């Protein structure tokens, strides 16, 4: 999937902003430290994915779901993330429904958020949803073929 | 009124629940997919992993700053992170990518010492 190693890095500007927001005002974060945190974040994603995947495999599922990710957090002893994650997911789900329901005030907000958010993912992010739905089907076909062979 | 239009950092933070995530989901997805045994990921799992990564970045930065030596100078350095990775149980998985730095001279000395010890066996 990733063609260049840089593809596995997270955008530095965003990481820097998240770090700044977490620390007290005026803390100077060295360039080396920022790079290290960014790499740590990528490793965190891989570690979490691998843990979550173990849970999915145990349940004989091919698709990682929200429960797998939450179980992975517990396994990794990041229980402190569970509550904020559950809350964020709820808001996120509501937001997705809200996009279709007419609710003018909310729409305005979301538009603004979207334009901010999409700067970086405008080119690559738009077809995400489509791809997500395509893949499981492809796998089902593959499974069926296997069964026929057997 | 509370939905103010300005987009300063402060506002971003206060509106954390409105603006769900700041990291690009597509990039996180790419990283997840680089793991060979992952076949597919649903949208909620992707969202949660992205959000968790943000929480992780905050948590790592803040723990390292609080345990670190830079509190007086108001700074966060690489060694603060390396120390946190080594000393905090939940951050142990980072020790490979956050190795403690040692001077080349110290390394050579310890290498020499090891060789001497090995040599003594023969």
Automatic annotation (TrEMBL), chain A:
Compartment(s): Nucleus
Pfam families: CBFD_NFYB_HMF
Residues in Transcription factor CBF/NF-Y/archaeal histone domain copies: 9-73
One GO MF term: chromatin DNA binding
Major localisation: nucleus
InterPro entries: CBFA_NFYB_domain, DNA_Pol-Epsilon_Subunit, Histone-fold
Gene Ontology cellular component annotations, sorted alphabetically: CHRAC; epsilon DNA polymerase complex
Region (Disordered): 93-150
Biased composition (Basic and acidic residues): 100-123
Keyword terms of this UniProt record: Acetylation, Coiled coil, DNA-binding, Nucleus, Phosphoprotein
Biased composition (Acidic residues): 124-150
Gene Ontology BP terms: DNA damage response; heterochromatin formation; leading strand elongation
Subunit annotation: Component of the DNA polymerase epsilon complex consisting of four subunits: the catalytic subunit POLE and the accessory subunits POLE2, POLE3 and POLE4. Interaction with POLE4 is a prerequisite for further binding with POLE and POLE2. Heterodimer with CHRAC1; binds to DNA. Component of the CHRAC ISWI chromatin remodeling complex at least composed of SMARCA5/SNF2H, BAZ1A/ACF1, CHRAC1 and POLE3; the complex preferentially binds DNA through the CHRAC1-POLE3 heterodimer and possesses ATP-dependent nucleosome-remodeling activity.
Function of the molecule: Accessory component of the DNA polymerase epsilon complex. Participates in DNA repair and in chromosomal DNA replication. Forms a complex with CHRAC1 and binds naked DNA, which is then incorporated into chromatin, aided by the nucleosome-remodeling activity of ISWI/SNF2H and ACF1. Does not enhance nucleosome sliding activity of the ACF-5 ISWI chromatin remodeling complex.
Protein name (database record): DNA polymerase epsilon subunit 3
UniProtKB/TrEMBL annotation, chain B:
Chief location category: nucleus
Protein localization: Nucleus
Pfam families: CBFD_NFYB_HMF (PF00808)
CDD domains: HFD_CHRAC1-like
Span of domain Transcription factor CBF/NF-Y/archaeal histone: 22-62
Keyword field: Acetylation, Coiled coil, DNA-binding, Nucleotidyltransferase, Nucleus, Phosphoprotein, Transferase
Membrane spanning stretches: none
Transferase keyword on record: yes
GO MF terms held by the record: DNA binding; nucleotidyltransferase activity; protein heterodimerization activity
Any GO BP: chromatin remodeling
InterPro entries recorded: CBFA_NFYB_domain, Histone-fold, Transcr_DNA_Rep_Reg
Region feature (Disordered): 1-21
Keyword Acetylation set for record: yes
Record-level GO cellular component terms: CHRAC
Subunit structure: Heterodimer with POLE3; binds to DNA. Component of the CHRAC ISWI chromatin remodeling complex at least composed of SMARCA5/SNF2H, BAZ1A/ACF1, CHRAC1 and POLE3; the complex preferentially binds DNA through the CHRAC1-POLE3 heterodimer and possesses ATP-dependent nucleosome-remodeling activity. Within the complex, the heterodimer with POLE3 interacts with SMARCA5/SNF2H; the interaction is direct and enhances nucleosome sliding activity by the SMARCA5/SNF2H and BAZ1A/ACF1 interaction. Within the complex, the heterodimer with POLE3 interacts with BAZ1A/ACF1; the interactions are direct.
Function of the molecule: Forms a complex with DNA polymerase epsilon subunit POLE3 and binds naked DNA, which is then incorporated into chromatin, aided by the nucleosome remodeling activity of ISWI/SNF2H and ACF1. Does not enhance nucleosome sliding activity of the ACF-5 ISWI chromatin remodeling complex.
PANTHER family, per database record: CHROMATIN ACCESSIBILITY COMPLEX PROTEIN 1, HISTONE-LIKE TRANSCRIPTION FACTOR CCAAT-RELATED
Name used for this protein in its record: Chromatin accessibility complex protein 1
Gene source species: Oreochromis niloticus (Nile tilapia)
């Amino acid at each position: 999937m990733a063609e260049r190693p840089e593809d596995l890095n997270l955008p530095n500007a965003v990481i820097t902003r998240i770090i700044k927001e977490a620390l007290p005002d005026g803390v100077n974060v060295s360039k080396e430290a920022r790079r290290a945190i960014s790499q740590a974040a990528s490793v965190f994603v891989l570690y979490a994915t691998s843990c979550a995947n173990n849970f999915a495999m145990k349940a004989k599922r091919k698709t990682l779901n929200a429960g797998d990710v939450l179980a992975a957090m517990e396994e990794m002893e990041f229980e402190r993330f569970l509550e904020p994650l559950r809350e964020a997911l709820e808001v996120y789900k509501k937001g997705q429904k809200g996009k279709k329901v007419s609710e003018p005030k909310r729409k305005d907000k979301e538009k603004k958020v979207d334009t901010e958010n999409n700067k970086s993912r405008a080119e690559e992010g738009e077809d995400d949803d489509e791809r997500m739905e395509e893949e499981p089907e492809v796998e089902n076909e593959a499974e069926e073929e296997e069964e026929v062979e057997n | 009124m509370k939905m103010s239009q300005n987009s300063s950092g402060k506002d971003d933070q206060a509106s954390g629940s409105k603006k769900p995530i700041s990291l690009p989901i597509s990039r996180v997805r790419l990283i997840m997919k680089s793991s060979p045994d992952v076949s597919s990921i649903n949208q909620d799992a992707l969202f949660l992993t992205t959000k968790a990564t943000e929480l992780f970045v905050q948590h790592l930065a803040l723990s390292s700053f609080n345990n670190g030596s830079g509190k007086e100078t108001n700074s966060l350095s690489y060694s603060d992170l390396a120390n946190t990775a080594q000393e905090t149980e939940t951050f142990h998985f980072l020790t490979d990518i956050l190795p403690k730095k040692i001077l080349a001279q110290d390394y050579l000395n310890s290498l020499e010492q090891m060789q001497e010890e090995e040599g003594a066996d023969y």
